[in-house]
Amino acid sequence: MKTIKHITILFILLATSIVSAQVKFEAKVSKKKLGVNERLRIDFEMNEDGDNFNPPSFKDFNVVAGPNQSVSHSWVNGKKSFNKTYSYFLAPKKQGKFTINQATIEIKGNTYKTTPITVVISKAVDKPNDPNNPDISIEDNIHLVAEVSKTDPYLNEAITVVYKLYVSPNTGVSNWRETDSPRYNDFWSQNIDIKGLKILNGTYKGEDYRYVVLRKTVLYPQKTGKLEIEPLSLDITVDVPTNRRNIFGERLMTQANKTISAGSRKINVKPLPENNKPANFTGAVGDFNFEVATSKQALNASESLQATVTVSGNGNLKLFELPKLSLPSSLEVYEPENRDKVSTTIKGMQGKRSQSYTVVPQFKGKYPLPSISFSYFDLKTESYKTLSSKELIIDVLEGPTNKESATNNAITSATNKQPVLGNDHFAFIKTKANLVSTTKKNFFKSTGFWTALLGPLLAIPLAIVFRNKREERLADVTGNKIRKADKLAKKYLSEAKRTLGQKEAFYVALEKALHNYLKAKLQIETSDFSKDKITQILNEKEVANATVLEFVSILKNCELARYTPITQVEMQQDYEKASKAISEIDKQIR
């Protein structure tokens, strides 16, 4: 009996060892020698399903993608086979010799480990040459292209950049994100919203591809000469075919991550011609119409009318100054109100800009509005054009007569006549001395006496009223906070206010004031922060979202002001917005 028992135990142990020997768990790499600019693929394969998979740390690599999991079942000659793989794509951090440590997994209650693998990382190679590396397939089948509408535009002429992602028919892209976005230095730029990405068919270098338009941007160059359009870079997840096939003979797919770039583009910006350039040209480039109109041509004194200067059409509408309206000095004129209705499409800016002047005549009469002109560079004819408005007459029907004007006219009409001396010609010579006595008056019962006597008594109730008002003011917490906020805004913006009218100095001072305010208020160094970080901090301090957006928009204006023409009125508006934003933040911040 003991012999049978021993044989049974031996048989069980032998069967267990055979089953254990059939379990495989191993690590495989795409190559053991690669350049520092290449990607390494590592697969952890098992022939039995397991749990609690633990990969190595990959401390000497950046994990670009993974883990990507794939499972396959197959039947060969009546035998079932199973394969499960965890895949990672790794980017080396530096050159050298590195060891990828063991991975572990639990299969049927037992823990299995892979064998450590050593790889050698050399200097960067010109082009990867491993045909099994999915990066090769990505480079051959996916292309990010920046299509520029014109490479030799004039200064302030609109050009478009369209970014297209081309993918070959046998490759799939499941996801992408921008890793580097172009900043368009020396350009005024506007992104065009794309509503829904559409997959289209096209060709790339003579071959059939599918493509999708990722981004459209309109650019207006603000400098002449050779300018660079920075590249757009994407990190994409791609489905690429492998050398393995399933039981039906179909090629198996795997996922890989790759960073691709559209590359930088060079354009040569031509200056506008100097020949025949009008004296009143302020940088308008495109095709425009010009008009000056009034809301009324006849009215009474002290009534108001609107005189509007309008430029409409296609071109760089936001990047030049409108002509100033010339009005007689006898008309009261207020600062103009800007009214812009400009939209940006793939063809550039279009719409209209206007300045509306409120005019209030004070005296009866007829007042001419002289003709003014507007000049622009016409891209179709490559020449300058000048448009002039009609001369308008403002007829003031009822009101007082301007006596000063009549007197001036009378003096002007008499300038050619000889002066006639009358009897009162020397009337300016005084014949009476009007002397005043110097004898001192008695102070007692004089006005000064009673003032000195009763003044302190009258001051007592005034002092009581003043003290009550002061206590009431101190008790007004909200009002004090508002007054303190306004004072703080004026303190930080004082330098910007002194430089109003000087575009560069003003916006440098304004941006510095905004950062100094946050630095003082939050005790942080904001000059190293992005606008997103500043938004996050202000939101954490419970500042209203509208106020935060206003504050950040002013910071953006400070950055863009270097490349766009700015009027005195726009500077004043930005100053007032900044003052209001600082005041609001100071009242709301927790």
Account of the protein in words:
This protein has 590 residues and is an alpha+beta fold. The protein folds into four domains: 19-128, Sandwich (Immunoglobulin-like), CATH 2.60.40.740; 136-269, Immunoglobulin-like (Sandwich); 286-396, Immunoglobulin-like (Sandwich); 477-588. The protein has helices at residues 2-22, 134-141, 403-413, 447-475, 477-498, 503-522, 531-540, 545-560, 568-588, and strands spanning 25-29, 33-35, 40-46, 51-54, 61-76, 79-92, 96-100, 104-107, 110-113, 117-122, 142-148, 159-167, 172-180, 187-192, 199-204, 207-221, 225-229, 233-245, 251-261, 265-269, 286-294, 298-299, 305-315, 331-333, 337-345, 348-361, 365-369, 373-378, 383-388, 392-396. The strands form nine sheets. Strands 11, 12, 14, 15 and 16 form a five-stranded antiparallel beta sheet that branches. Strands 21, 23, 24, 25 and 26 form a five-stranded antiparallel beta sheet that branches. A four-stranded antiparallel beta sheet has the order 1-3-6-5, with no helix packed on it. The longest helix has 29 residues, at 447-475. The radius of gyration is 41 Å and the shape is flat.
